[in-house]
Design brief:
Elements: H1 3-8, H2 11-26, H3 40-55, H4 62-77, H5 81-97, H6 102-113, H7 116-119
Helix pairs in contact: 2-3, 2-5, 5-6
């Protein structure tokens, strides 16, 4: 188990963060329109898997995957840097509200932020 995953606790703790993350996003009118007609349970499972992979540094091909996975939604909803920043703020808040170690939270947020150009299709 990676040190980062160990500091967060386990995948159950990460699942709690992801549930809170989406609760925050779904209540935010600046971004919740993106999730209309989305199977949220499936999305939450995928996010737990994705963040676990990031924490375990098992992210070979992550940039290509992220770019491909988001290209249609970015185009359809005109997603931009402001939307990405809202996501990061929601993730940060979820970590805080779930009492995740601040250093571990910062490390994972840094990894998530590094994906911004791939999510937005800027590369």
């Amino acid at each position: 188990m990676s040190t980062l995953l160990k500091h967060i606790g386990d995948t159950a703790a990460l699942s709690e963060v992801i549930v809170r993350f989406y609760d925050i996003l779904l209540s935010d009118t600046r971004i919740n329109f993106i999730f209309k007609n989305v199977n949220m349970e499936s999305l939450k499972r995928k996010q737990v898997w994705f963040f676990t992979s990031l924490m375990l540094n098992e992210c070979s091909g992550t940039h290509d995957y992220v770019k491909k996975a988001h290209q249609n939604i970015v185009a359809k909803y005109d997603i931009n840097a402001t939307h990405f920043d809202i996501l990061i703020d929601a993730l940060t808040t979820a970590f805080q509200e779930c009492h995740i170690d601040p250093e571990s939270s910062r490390e994972l947020i840094k990894k998530a932020k590094s994906l911004k150009p791939y999510v937005l299709g800027d590369v």
